Amino acid sequence: MNHSPANNAHPWIATLQASLDTLETALLKGDAAGVEQASAAMQSVLQQAPKTSEFAVPGSTLRHDMQNAAQRFAQLRSAVLRANAQSERAVGSLLPQQALQQQPTYGRIVKPNAMGGAGRGFLRA
To answer: Whole-number mean pLDDT of the chain?
Structure first.
């Protein structure tokens, strides 16, 4: 699990990777409160991202490390969405009346926007 970057990595990347480690640990434990806390911490870290000019510094691995962290975050997000979908299906099988009262975690807003698009996706916690 420890995806710590190389020693020459930007300090912000090390903090970001540590936040991802914490989030991943909470997800693996099924700790909802821990996931919520780790998500809030992750948001705080992301708000402290380096200036965009730092990503272009010659010899810096910041851009590459950031892309790796983004990929890892996307994988964690996908795992959460899959687990939640399985949970919703289980609730639907075991408690069909309760399942009818809930919206799915991820879905489409059917009403198209004023620009004539296909609608917007949403994520419900």
So the answer is: 78
